[in-house]
Specification:
The structure is a homodimer.
Chain A lengths: L1 E8 L3 H12 L1 H8 L1 E9 L14 E3 L3 H4 L6 E4 L7 H10 L3 E4 L2 H18 L3 E2 L10 H8 L5 E7 L2 H13 L3 H10 L8 H4 L2 H15 L1 E2 L6 E2 L7 H9 L2 E12 L2 E12 L11 E8 L3 E8 L3 H20 L16 E2 L9 E11 L4 H11 L4 E6 L9 E8 L2 E2 H11 L5 E11 L1
Parallel strand pairs in A: 1-2, 1-4, 2-3, 4-5, 5-6, 8-14, 9-11, 11-19
Antiparallel strand pairs in A: 7-10, 7-12, 10-11, 12-13, 15-17, 15-18, 15-19, 16-17
């Protein structure tokens, strides 16, 4: 039986998971691939960080012990971060090694370089583990939805943010209390910025957009808004409206341009993502012929992500058995990518939830609705709460608009917040059907 | 650009859908494959059945006009039924043509012959459209969950049965009223036997089991129970228990044997399949490393099924571009299949809902619980309804058991139904957590 050797760059949570899976399910994987796949080397920063020395794996601090080892066929980059992940991946590809990664940040920042290295060296570059952990959404778009123009994608693709929002909803606690719980359980990192500010989700939706439309996009043009400003008042008001607040990553094709963004979003109880709670992830999408579909599962963790990475290793091993690894399919499933423009968030139409904090006086609804109407915005519903929710004698006054342009909403909010009765800056959250 | 020609066996609902998709998304598919894919011929039974002659497709009544056409690379069998589907598929493969199908009945009955023909002739045999329509569950198991021992699969994979049960639940109507509505809307065929008796679902779960475990199974040993005996009383009692009755197809691996069955099942509101209603399908599964995952979408119809079939055509076209079509992967994702035993339904443990119809006398609970207890069955809850639900003065008496062996349940029911107070045969429905 042909042997395929794997070198791991990184032997942390996911790296160890990959080694565990390849060992525990070694025979099953051999039956599926006809190939004997083994991890032979693993790169670490410091030899002392490895508590238990794995018996069949050589641990090294020298990346070139992996790059220059001609017996290694596949290099798995699970170090995280931008560098040296990018350089190491390219070094490995230059030496004819196939590369598998779960590092979304590195792909989002450096996909052009990484793609070029894969093509120039005729090797595979696969990244199923980079989006939504164990959910096989990368391969679904690249291989299974290929008959379709993907119309739209909405995903809950950051488990940390979803856990925090679920906790805030279920236990009526503040963002910081929920974050502390998430950190205690290991669901949030000590520096949680990437997760709670939506950056991780924007890396992932960027990858899904490339796969769906074969487009080159400017990552920095993605509108990204996190959840650290979400207050319990809005969670509670959402509940009264039979809605939940979720951090959604959204991408849609609009006449060749791409609407792509990450922001807190109110979703109603009929929305397929409404009941995706805790650390679970889900991707809901629509294809022109497929119609709607949803993929649900564990979005992170040693074994779900390990399962995805190993599926990529197996794909390469199956291709290697036919001597066509790196030749059969392009990393994003398109032969060439086209440049596409990202639609500005201000141009995007949606319904909006807007919470004003107002002194409880006559004429609030009249003045607000006049200004909205001057900007062409119509109100679907309004709720005025009685006093006592806020510390002072202000009250929340909430409106849900019909579909309106982001720019018009911004202009009207700026105008309304200058009115005397507004005591705090308004809060605005987009609403998805 | 290399041209790949497709011949359709069958130009009905799905056949026409495939031709439509390949024409409408021709350019997109070329960008994804680097190949120009066209339907050039279609086989029909009778030339008069084609209302609108498609401009670029030659319609024929002679299958050999397709088999013997050396310009045709891929034959798509969408005729349905066992024969001549089997013979035609094998004839095509003998002539070196790759075959794609959506015909689950033919696969379930003849997979050995079909697999042998694919292997002997070195061609691809793909069937993504055969299970759950547009949901890419075949490729998910074959290519994406490959690192995992699949632990269990539960699916709502017959849209007709799910539509009927959803209607019965929502509108409190009888099975036959709901069936008539389904037929009126085209969701059920004139002869609905395959759908309502669970046979179609058993074809599909059989295919998923082969993919998951690489096993040869005796299709006829699958326990298959349909929904035609489900009464509105049980639907209503299920609702009172916060349950719904769903036709589930279930497969689990049990120490090398396979537990595989199709039957009406009560699922609680926390079950991931609880909210899958109407014609939608979903497959929920667990892998040892992946954990739980769910795939949801449209399980039938011209375009969802067409989307799946075209994804198989694209896979073959991508492989053809590397000259490895038929060589890269085995149809079920395993190099060899092993024979496995199907666990008898009587050996299977689960919780049970049992509805007795009893005369409202003293000692009912005492006698029933004594007999159950003698068979080692413990009661989780019991509900006795007041008079007036049944036409006579009988009342339904319902118990939910803790986990128990099917055989013990059968023995106790036989004993209990001989008691004087039982006025009708008991009704038994399995309960899944």
């Amino acid at each position: 039986m042909k042997q395929v050797n794997v070198g791991l760059l990184g032997y942390g949570v996911v790296g160890k998971g990959i080694a565990d899976i390849l060992e525990a399910n070694h025979q099953l994987i051999a039956q599926r691939t006809g190939v004997d796949i083994r991890v032979t080397k693993a790169l670490v920063k410091d030899l002392d960080e490895v508590q238990e020395k794995p018996p069949h794996i050589e641990i090294t601090v020298d990346p070139y012990a992996i790059f220059d080892d001609s017996s290694i066929d596949i290099v798995v980059e699970v170090m995280g971060g931008y560098e040296p992940a990018r350089t190491f991946s390219i070094e490995a590809m230059k030496r004819g090694k196939h590369v598998v990664t779960a590092n979304k940040a590195c792909i989002a920042a450096h996909y052009c370089d990484l793609l070029a290295a894969a093509q120039e060296n005729g090797v595979s570059y696969l990244f199923e583990g980079s989006v939504a952990g164990g959910i096989p959404i990368v391969r679904a778009i690249r291989d299974s939805l290929t008959a379709n123009n993907v119309r739209s994608i909405s995903g809950i693709i950051n488990g940390t943010a979803n856990y925090i929002l679920s906790k805030m909803t279920d236990e009526k606690i503040s963002f910081y209390e929920a974050l502390a719980q998430a950190q205690k359980l290991g669901y949030a990192e000590v520096d949680p910025t990437f997760d709670i500010e939506g950056i991780d989700a924007s890396h992932k939706i960027f990858i899904l957009a490339l796969l769906s439309w074969g487009v080159e996009l400017d990552f920095n043009a993605i509108y990204t808004e996190g959840i650290s400003n979400i207050s319990p008042i809005d969670i509670e008001l959402a509940r009264e409206l039979n809605n939940k607040i979720k951090l959604l990553a959204i991408a849609k094709e609009c006449d060749g341009d791409i609407d792509i963004r990450v922001h807190p979003t109110m979703v109603g109880e009929d929305h397929p993502l409404y009941s995706v709670d805790g650390v679970f992830n889900a991707v809901y999408l629509e294809g022109d012929y497929l119609g709607p579909a949803m993929f649900y599962g564990q979005g992170a963790g040693r074994y779900p992500t390990g399962s995805a990475v190993v599926s990529d290793i197996i794909e390469i091993a199956r291709d290697m058995a036919c001597d066509i690894a790196g030749k059969r399919i392009q990393p994003f499933g398109y032969h060439t990518l086209r440049k596409a423009r990202i639609v500005s968030i201000e141009e995007i139409h949606s319904a909006f939830y807007i919470r004003f904090t107002v002194k409880d006086t006559v004429g609030v609804l009249r003045d607000i609705s006049r200004i909205l109407s001057e900007h062409g915005i119509s109100i679907a519903s309004a709720i005025q709460k009685e006093r006592g929710i806020q510390a002072d004698d202000s009250v929340p006054f909430v409106i849900i608009t019909h579909e309106a342009r982001g720019y018009d909403i911004l202009l009207s909010i700026r105008e309304i917040e200058r009115l005397d009765f507004c005591t705090e800056p308004p809060v605005m959250i987009r609403v998805e059907d």
